[in-house]
Structures
1.
Amino acid sequence: MSLPKDSITKDYTDVEATLSRITSHTGVQGIVIATHEGSVIRSTLDNIQTQQISTLVTQLAARGKSVVRDLDPEDDLTFLRIRSRKNEIMVAETKQYLLITIQNPNELQKGWI
Amino acid sequence: MKSVRRTKIAPDAPTLGRTASMHSLRSANGDDNNGGGGEDWLPPKVLLKPAGQLQLTETELNEELTRILNANNPHAPQNIARFNHRERVFKASPNVDHLVVHFEFDGYMSYKNVDESSAPAPVKDSVAVVEPPSGEAGTATEEAGTPTPAAEAGKDGGEGLEEKAKEEEQKKPKGPLRNQFNFSERASQTINNPFRERWTNTEPPPQRTLSDTVNQWSIYDAYVEDQLQKEKAKAKAPAGGAGAKGLKDEDKNILPTETHTEDVYYKNTDLRRALIIIERMANQNTFDEIAQDYKYYEDASDDLTPSKGSLLPLWKFLCEKEKRKQVTALSWNSRFSDFFTVGYGSYDFSNQGPGMVAGFTLKNPSYPEFLYVTDSGVMSLDFHPQHHSMIAVGLYDGSVAVYSMQEKSDAPLFKSAPKAGKHTDPVWQVSWQKDDLDGNANFFSISTDGRVTQWTLLKTELNHTDVIKLRLEMQSPQEIEGSIDDGQLFSLAGGSCFDFHKQLDHLFVVGTEEGKIFKCSKEYNNQYLLSFEGHQMSVYAVRYNHFHHNVFISASADWTVKLWDHDEDKPIMSFDLNSSVGDIAWAPYSSTVFAAATADGKVCVFDLAENKYEPISEQQVVRKAKLTHISFNPFEPVLLVGDDKGQVISLKLSPNLRKKNKSGDDEATKLKNIILIARGQSPTD
């Protein structure tokens, strides 16, 4: 009986470990896991930013998805990368969730070698 | 209607009556014989008196005689007797009819347009004057017995009238005619139901404004969903009999998943996959320059110095958890060009501990894709060439294990039991071989306890067979049989590495700690086919060439790398690298290129076609660390080296280091020619 419980906690720790790894990665500002409707499941950012990102990015992702689907209904959006002057917004789209990561790619150079 | 009343003055005497009737007769005939008779109606001027007239006195004349009028017919017989047939006697009938009809007259008016015969007869319009005749009047008119001319005349008139009436009567329709003036219209109306209006105000149904933007893909999705449901229903329909139970089961299945989906985001496999990809993306951003170098950078200086090459360091892989561990094994995946595993352990006898197997991808240098922690230090590992997820691992404590990346758990798929054939010393090398005849995967391991063991993966267990026991001195089979006791153990050679012939499955060479290399066969487990003398110290690696199947190379702690033909006991070539050579590897793309990793942190790449004495690239890769292992990527020009600080460095080979056959020769003949030259013979073309 303890086996499924273990696997759940393992799942949890695995995901949390991955999340914390990504968060601590060079330049990464934070991660937001949100549903397609924009409700936040998990976030490593502060409230205001989380709110902003979840509402705005989900809209954009929905729009992007719509574009892809309109071009070919059998196609689907999987990832969305937006490079801005300061940051890169990376959106991974899954069936249920949107995984939004903000990374500052300019911060990297000092971290390497 | 006309009524005629015939008034008659009843004469007191019959004579008077007679005269009166005479008068009327005369007037009726129009014959006036009497002068005076004609003026009957005139007041008599001359009173004529009959002769016999009684003379009355004045008083008598004035005397009043009272006569009473009654309704009895004076002429009606009062003594009518009729024969009664019943009693057979005459009987006087007491009832005498006193009714006398004086005048009868029927109406003669009828409808103008109605045919009287067909139309209903009008109500008889007749007037009957009924007068009860006085006695005198009766005598005057109806006395049939005494017809007088006056009476006859009256009769004539009466008869004419009667005839007229009769005619009329015949003309008259039989039935009564409707009186048109007596018409009354009668109408009746049924009761009209009064109108009633009844209404109640129900609660208004909830309204919802539903608006949506429909586009091509949403329609497509709707259709796909519909299709799926139809198929589901179809699949369900045949199994309708077991529906009740099936439904229940389904409910059970559905319920928990639905309730869990919201909060248990970490169970979502899609999300986890996305997380991994995001991590790779972040790494790609971080190491973008390296990725560009990996893909596109070619050292420009190679063109200037054709006989020299260089190594470009790319990513460094470091497992944060095990910084103090040494890299004891490296193995590329044979299918995924970016994937490799690193074994962590320790070569230091006094510093042992748990080991690790980490799987890295070039796409994510910061963290391994997976990690297996082992009880003992990992000493060797090998990816299965066909089953890409299977890793054989040899541990410091002498046990071997097989991990499968497809398994969810971190436990090994197979692990050798302590009693069943486990090595007593560290397992220095493991190597997969072709599946046996039954299709079971199997691998070989070598340990310093002197045994080479074949492990076969059965369904539930790992089966072991000792292929050969390495003895230091193996002169004759007889001698061995005599010394089966303790002496045998001590005389065993410590195997440290081996490699199988690329074509002959049974043939392999074994390097030992003593520096000797033996050529062995699976078929002869008591005898070496050949022993190669040349190394003075432990042999760390032996590798057959990928193209020239009889040639192998060995790396030893005595600072040398030697090239051998497996039919000759002396080395063909020897290279001194000025440091202990930890590992050596043939390049997969060229028969003449090999790379060696030395303990002073250098990587030396040789291309015998270019230079038979010196490495064409000798590069310090790490400082203050010993390089322990080296491995060529089977697809990309990338070299991996591991050091004893737990770091793995990927290096890109410059174009000069990955030169392929220039002359278009077969790779094998290229090496063969070089060997012939090295032996002082002329190359065969």
2.
Amino acid sequence: MLEIFDMNWLAQGIRLSVPLVFAALGGLLSERAGVINIALEGKMLAGAFTGVAVTWWSGSNVLGLFAALAAGAAVGWVHAWFCISVRADQIVSATAINLFALGITAALIPAIWEGGRANTPGVDRFRSFDFPLLNDIPGLGTVFQRLSWFDYAAIALAPVIWILLWRTPFGLRLRSCGESPEAAASVGVNVIRTRYVAVMLAGVLAALGGVYLSLVQNGLFQRGITNGRGFLALAAMIFGKWKPIPVLAACLLFGLADAYQLRAQSRSELPVELFQALPYVIGLITLLFVGRAIAPAAIGRAYVKE
Amino acid sequence: MSGKPRRLNKEDPAEGAQPPKQKTASDGASPAAVRLQGITKRYPGVLANDDINLEIAAGSIHGLLGENGAGKSTLMKILFGLVTPDAGEIQLGGRMASIDSTRTALDLGIGMVQQHFSLIADFTVTENLVLGKEPTRRGPFLDMERAKSEVQELSDRYDFRIDPSAKVASLAVGARQRVEILKALYRGAEMLILDEPTAALAPPEVEELAGLLRRLRDQGRTVVFISHKLPEVIDLCDRVSVLRSGRVEGHREITSNDRSNPQALTSELARMMVGHDLPESPARGDAAADAVLLRLDEATDGGRLGPLSLEVRGGEIVGVAGVEGNGQTELVEMILGVRRCSKGTIRLIGEDATRWSVRRRLASGLAHIAEDRHGTGVAERMDLAHNVTLGFQGTRPFSRRGVWLSLSQMRRFADGVVRRFSVLSPSVATLVAGLSGGNQQKLVVGRELSRGPRVILAAQPTRGLDVKAAAFVHDELADLCRRDGVGVLLVSLELSEVLALSDRVLVMSEGGIAGETRPGDMDVTTLGRWMTGGARSGVAA
């Protein structure tokens, strides 16, 4: 089934990896600052839902997009407040956010849209973006024709995050909070504020991943639309060893594997479930090769100001 | 801790930003960089500092000598803004100062290198130094090139021999310590406080540090050197203050005459520290030629350790000397059984123990005084009674039928250890985390020596102990040897400890044994060559 590996597969693979890229890079920001972020799933759901709801209400998907980002920041703030200010267990508070987001978005669908049960009515979605020159390249052009500016933004985001973390004072301080908050505080870094900013930025990026699912790919919101992608993004972040470019590569690997299995299952007699497991199997196999991932030293540890 | 302003500063609350510089050129005698008056700090049950008066001259190395718990660290933490005193005042360069945080201390030109380093292992040297006051270029971007050259320049000026681009995680302890000092200087410290800086250093590294501190003094900086090691203090310091039980016992100038002939001063200072004469070191008799209790034959971990062979007989103390990081830790781990012995054999009391589990080795009479107290020596969040019985929880009398723990038996045993090794603790139900480092170490040593061992693996058994407690541990080890025929493998970075205690000395270098000697016919040059034979200098290339 080698004929699956064509330009359509490439385009579809990129599109499937984009929500992972946004969420995984968000998670990276948060974890580099020392806050575990398994709440990515919940933040994606919040973004996906808010985007559709506000677009439906206002008629403007741009407004929907910004509302979704704000919702991501808000959920990020709640997560940060529990983890940083209350110093609650970071895994427990994140799990609570995930469950709450899943429940509340599902419950709001019938509450807002009468008759709707599992999904919202369709709204105006973001269309693919015409890159005049690129689209005309023979062969590869088909890939560019099918990409929206979200896709370009996702790929550009990885180097941007790298520059932010490794080439700016803010990034150095953010990473110091994830390695040794006490050492950071002793030289005047505001650990609490830095961690809040990082976790809220993570919320914004995860919400962007959610918006991609609802406002770019589907044009509607469906109960549990993220379907575990927040956790897959988390896995990609760990595969990528908390480094932006390898994280991007891991997300692309997952996306391409997913595209392959989607196309392969329709042409085969084998059970669908076998194909659906493919991205995860590939993930496990890559684990054998990437070696030990070393997390930031102070990850998951609340900082108590002296 | 509390944000309350202190009462140190009645006259001039706004004063605080006066660096202790620019007063080098007054009348003949060096002016005081720091004057502490009536400093008192009380913790529940302990008077850590009791009305302490102390003057530290600018441009000098001032020794602060005292046993563990004498109040040295507390006093210096007060000066560095980590601890708020209950009473007393601090003058810097003749002006009142209110030091309410480490930030203030740093702004006033005071830097401190603590026993636990405050470096970020995953960062480079430069990243560690610039964190918090990063140079930038083109707006928001870090100027790492400029930062690196600044760090390089500072390093060169005092001959730190530090590579600004090296990751801290890749540096040896001595180099990390120099980075810590460099960090204080980078932040403009005129005065440096070093808390037990030689505790983790090997002899060559101690020499290197001493040279560095002298260079800093000669360039006009002030150094406070906290220690309980007399020879180092006499060798390095211009003046020394001795603390005992939170009070100043006295001050003493150290002359070059003292340095060339240190005996008199040593016993004088020791008396001031301890309050009475030092106990004699255990007399060294001839080791009885008993049976071999521990024997390694071409044992290796398949990595950097070995293959090496050694044996320890009953009634014998075999010392292992060497520069840190030459396989001593790995050797202890392999004998204990937490590191795999991939080739060769380990025999314990006549039996092949190469494949034995840790538990079986311990049960057959192996005791282990852990080198890393925090990581492997104790479980800090458990109380004394549990810690003392840990590892033997499944055997009688601590457990009945291997199921039910007997708390009363555990407490009784712990009480015995606490009494015999004079561990200072309110009760055996106290969490070990609440004990001072020295007392934790006494507990670990006491636990291991109280189990009726046949072979003792003693890795840095007196790390963090004061003179008296160290002498006590040495006596106990020697006693067990002489009286009960126990075999001891003593691994220590303190050459003096190894030489004082051992019947035979093995020197480790790069995972192997570079040579063997007896303390009697020791030849310093040979020993030095063995220790540094191709070894790292602890400096990043």
